[in-house]
Structures
1.
Amino acid sequence: MLVTILMGLIVGLLGGFFMGFSFGGSTLVGFLVCVLVGIVGSFIGGFLGSALKVKNKVVQFILDIVGACVLIAILKAVF
């Protein structure tokens, strides 16, 4: 359980970090929002994996990445 939470935090943090650079986040607030969106997206992917009863850690990791990427793409499309 703890490993899953840490994995979600790391994936979301990295996804948000790279999203902040792709948005050209010139302000700290914009950058922090990008990081938070990446973390939330990763946890959404993790929740989806739990709802589907995924036991494989590699598949769970992939779902974390997909969740973060989808939420980041939605944010990019809206803003």
Note: The chain has a mean pLDDT of 78.
2.
Amino acid sequence: MTTNEGNFGQLVPTGGGDNIELKKDRLIIGRRENCDIVLRFANVSGQHARMTLEQGYWFLKDLGSRNGTKVNGYRISRKRLDPGDKIRFAKHEFIIEYSPEDLGAFGPPPPDDDHIEEVLRRGLMDRAGLRRRDDQKKFENRDLAEDED
């Protein structure tokens, strides 16, 4: 992916302070001075997270940070960011503001990767909506009429 310079939106701190302009389509957020967005807080990892612009939408990936990355209160590994989402790096919260249409988006938004990952973490039986048989009765046939909830 080539890194284009421009205005791709902004992060607005919820606790006050200056807005952070998103000037490239690929950004590293962290405590280190060589990061694109430097957050000088002890609880932010050196390289905490990466933001990438894909099909007009921002995606956020946690880079194995110690204190985690959350979107709208949920810890994420990788997630699509919609305008107005609340992002938290450790305990520092921002609201992302941008216009997908201005950044080239059209049609439905791309899939949200964290939902796919959550489904894949579940067992195959659970994904299929099936339940395991009771170990005590594994050789008995179930009465399907009794299984209705």
Note: The chain has a mean pLDDT of 85.
3.
Amino acid sequence: MSVRRTLATGAPVLATVLGGALLRGLVLAAPASAAPAPDLAASVTTFSAGRLGASTGAVLGLAGLLVAWRATARPAGRLGAATGPLGAVLALAAGVAAVVLGGLVAATADAGLGTGNGRGGAYVALLVGLAATALGGRALARSRRRAG
């Protein structure tokens, strides 16, 4: 059998097989392409674990920042540096907890900002927790200076 004869008889068969496969691919692919694409970002109303951790860290950091501010601004108050290291220690603990929570959420978030994984809130918790830790350390140094 010559090459010309093989190609002449094989071409229509090959065209039929490829055409059928292409037609089947288009018919079977139509329902899949008609389905909505899955959302990569979380909905605005969903509260994921990342958002919860980041929000908790940010609130803890803010509370620590407020306690540290009260401890340094009003030394004679209940949380102040003149009455002991209570306010400073509370601020340091809240600040460190906020930094740890923010770092954990930022490290485990698998997508970028705005996707609902809590990465933006984790960065806020890191910053506020760092500020609370710094101001709490300053209040602790003041309370030790007054006590000693």
Note: The mean pLDDT is 74.
